[in-house]
Amino acid sequence: MELQSKYESDIERYVKRMGGTEGAMKRWKVIVKRKEYPGGKTKLVVTYDTGKKILRSKPEVARHLGIVDSKKSEAIREVSDEIKLSKWQMNRIVKAPTWLASHVEHYLMQGYTIFKNVLTPELVSKLLLGTGEASEPFFDNTGRKLRARDATQCWQGAVQTINAHIKHDGGTETVLSPATTRDTDRYDIPLPHQVCGPVLDAITENGILKFATHMCKQGKFKTQDIMLSKPGSVEQVAHTDSSWDDISCTDSRVTYLTILIPLTFQDVDTGGTRIWPRSHHVSEFTDWKKSVDVVEPMLSIGDALVFDGLLVHCGMGNTSTSKSDRYFYYAAFSSSHDPNTEVTGV
Ligand SMILES: O=C(O)CCC(=O)C(=O)O
C-alpha cells in the first residue's frame, strides 16, 4: 500500500510537471506488481488503468492525456512547418532513382523510412536458430576495442549462441565475451562473417544498400549484430547513434544510417523502437522524454526500419510474459567511426 501511494503521487507529480491538469487521472488505478523473471530476479512493474485502457509507461500516460510540453512541441512544430532541405539534400531527392525517391524524401524530412519484407522467413529462422550445424570458430580479434574474443566460439543461431553466453549463478549474471550487456536484460552479439553474407545479400536485393550508398556515398557497414531484449528490459534513454560533432546544420549530409530488422514478433508488450520524427534536423533538443510527438513503428518480422544516426530514438521496455524475447538485427552503415563498434563488433 505504501508503494502504491508512492507511485500514485509520483505519476501525479509527473503529469503536473508536464503541464497536465489536476485531477486528470481522477478515476485511474495505479497498479504495482512484483514480477519474477528467470534466474530469480524480480522487478516492480507499474501500470496505469484508466478504466478503459492499461497504460504501461509515463510517456504513454502523457500521450494518452494529450499533454504537450509547450516549449518542445513549439520547437517541433517550427521544425515541421519550416523544414527547409539543404542544397545537398534536395540534390539527393532529385538524383534518386524513381523507385527510391519516396524513401529518400521521407528519410530526409522525417529521419527514417521503412523497407518491407527484407528478410525471408527462412533467413530469419536461420539467423535465430542456426542451420543445425555448429559453424567453424568465427570470432577473430580484428577491430575489437574492448574485450578480446575467445577464438573457440561457434555460431549456432542467435538464440542458442547469445543464451550460451549469459550465465546465471544465484543472483549473479555474467555475460561472456563477445556478447555484451547494453542495459539490464538487453544484450547483443556480433554476427559472424559467414552469417553476415546472406543478410547483406538480402539487404542488397531489397534496395537498402543502394539507398544507403545514395545517402552516404563513403559509407560502409561498420557493425552487424543481433540484439536481444528480454522480458524485464526497461525503456532505454532516448539517444542518437551518431553525434552532431563535425556536422554542419546548413549542409546536413547524411553520415550514419542505422538499420533495425525484427527477427521475432513485436508488439506494445515486447516493445519495439520508439522514434522522434524530424529530431535529426535539430541539434539543440535535449529533453526528448517530454516530446509527445513520437512514433512507435510496429514492424513485421523481416521489415527494416532505417533511420538517421542523428534521429532521437530508444528501445522500448519489454513488459511481455517470460517467453517473449525480442530479437532483432542491427546494422550501422556510416562514413564515420561507429561508437557501437567499440562495444559490439568489427
Ligand atoms: O531496442 C531497440 O529497438 C533500439 C536499440 C537501440 O537503440 C540501442 O541499443 O542503442
Summarize, please.
This protein is of the alpha+beta class and 346 residues long. The chain has helices spanning 2-17, 58-65, 70-81, 87-95, 98-110, 121-129, 158-164, 193-206, 208-215, 339-344; strands spanning 29-36, 42-49, 54-55, 112-115, 166-169, 172-175, 180-183, 186-190, 220-229, 256-262, 273-275, 304-308, 313-315, 326-334. Helix 4 packs antiparallel against helix 5 (98-110).
What does it look like?
The protein has 346 residues and is an alpha+beta fold. The protein has 2 domains: 2-65, no CATH class; 70-125 and 174-344, Sandwich (Jelly Rolls). The protein has 10 helices and 14 strands. Strands 4-12-10-14-9-8-7 form a 7-stranded antiparallel beta sheet. A hairpin with a 4-residue loop joins strand 2 and strand 3 (54-55). Helix 4 runs antiparallel to helix 5. It is globular and about 60 Å long. It starts with a helix and ends with a helix. The model is unreliable at 140-149 (pLDDT under 50). The structure holds 2-oxoglutaric acid. 2-oxoglutaric acid binds next to strand 13.
Strand percentage, roughly?
Answer: 15-25%
CATH class of the largest domain: Mainly Beta
Assign the CATH superfamily of the largest domain. q2cbj1_9rhob like domain
The main sheet orders its strands as 4-12-10-14-9-8-7
Q: What is the total tally of β strands?
A: 14
CATH level-3 fold name of the largest domain: Jelly Rolls
Quickly count the domains: 2
- Tally of alpha and pi helices: 10
SSE ordering = HEEEHHHHEHHEEEEHHEEEEEEH
Head-to-tail CA distance between termini: 50 Å
Query: What is the CATH architecture term of the largest domain?
Result: Sandwich
Going by helix content, strand content and strand pairing, the class is alpha+beta
The residue-averaged pLDDT reads 82
Please state the CA-atom Rg, rounded to the nearest Å: 21 Å
Instruction: Determine the fraction of residues in helical runs and give it as a percent range.
Output: 25-40%
Low-confidence stretches: 140-149
Largest sheet: 7 strands, antiparallel
Shape: globular
Q: Which oligomeric form is depicted?
A: single chain
Hetero compounds: 2-oxoglutaric acid
